Amino acid sequence: MVPMKVSAIPEAFLAYYRTFPYADMNVLKLEHTRRVVTNAIRIMEGERFPQELWGAGETAAWLHDVGRFQQFQKYHTFSDRQSVNHALLSCGEILRLGWLDDRLPQERNLILQAIAFHNLKDIPGGLSEDETLLVNLVRDADKLDIFTVLDDAIETNYLPSHPEVYWGLPFTAPPSPKIVAAVKSGATIDYADIHSFVDFVFIQLAWCNGGLYFAESRRMALERQEIEIRENYLCALLPDHAKTIQQCCSVVKAAIQESCHGA
Predict the structure, then answer these.
(1) Residues 60 and 137 sit within 8 Å (Cβ to Cβ)
(2) How far is Cα 10 from Cα 62, in angstroms, rounded to an integer?
(3) What is the number of helices (H) and of strands (E) in the chain?
(4) What percentage of the chain has pLDDT greater than the value 70?
(5) Radius of gyration of the CA atoms of the chain, in A
């Protein structure tokens, strides 16, 4: 086990990735991680992050999903509900490999906490200012690239033949009333209420309505037209439910535009 500085983390991550069999899903997670790092750097720039947090922020972005490779190898799914908590698995791997052994305890704990909390429905209370920044940095950067992963899958018509991307949910089932209500009200979605692909996509709409912490993150979502991409695709997929989909998207777009205007 060899501890390493921030500059060595990307190389170590790639070496670790190469120990797993080549598979579409592993490549997907590799590219996802690279983009999460890019998103995190832009957020830190746009939000003028304290310089002393940049190293921890970039490291946490690189390592937030390192457990995904073991998860898919063992369970053949990215669904935590059907397997294990991938964030905690990531923390375990990081500790086992000793990648943070050279960091001061405070920085090491910040990084591990940001990774452990990045997939929670709600963040625990009582966090310090630095903890709040790091946790939300990884959460926002991750969400922004989950948008991108779906964008690419829509463009390439990847989804119908790869249900593992959306937890094996029914592809053309209608939206669930609880999910529609949550999106319209800006409430956090309970993953236990997700019963279809459209519900899965509505998780991302909910992020646009109160689920992105930083103003820079919200601006990025608007720039990338994430709401419009989902509205167009879902309306074409489920024309009988287009009115409901359009209503949800309209509410979300108005909310995110207002939040950016006031930031």
Answers:
(1) yes
(2) 7
(3) 12, 0
(4) 97
(5) 18
DSSP string, 29-55: HHHHHHHHHHHHHHHHHHTT--GGGHH
Spatial distance between the Cα atoms of 151 and 85, rounded to a whole number of angstroms = 25
Rounded to an integer, what is the distance from CA 144 to the centroid of its chain? Answer: 6
Q: What is the largest CA-CA distance in the chain?
A: 57
Amino acid sitting at position 210: G
Distance (Å, whole) CA 257 – CA 126: 29
Other beta carbons within 10 angstroms of residue 204's beta carbon come to: 22
Q: pLDDT confidence of 19, banded at 50, 70, 90?
A: very high
The two tokens of residue 91 are 């923390």
From the list 140, 141, 194, 133, the residue with the least C-alpha distance to 167 is 194
Of the chain, the percentage scoring pLDDT greater than 90 comes to 74
Task: Specify burial of residue 122 (Cβ count, 10 A radius: 0-12, 13-18, 19+).
Answer: exposed
Alpha carbon of 12 to those of 54, 56, 91, 108: distances in Å?
19, 16, 15, 17
Q: Looking at residue 5, what is its pLDDT?
A: 59
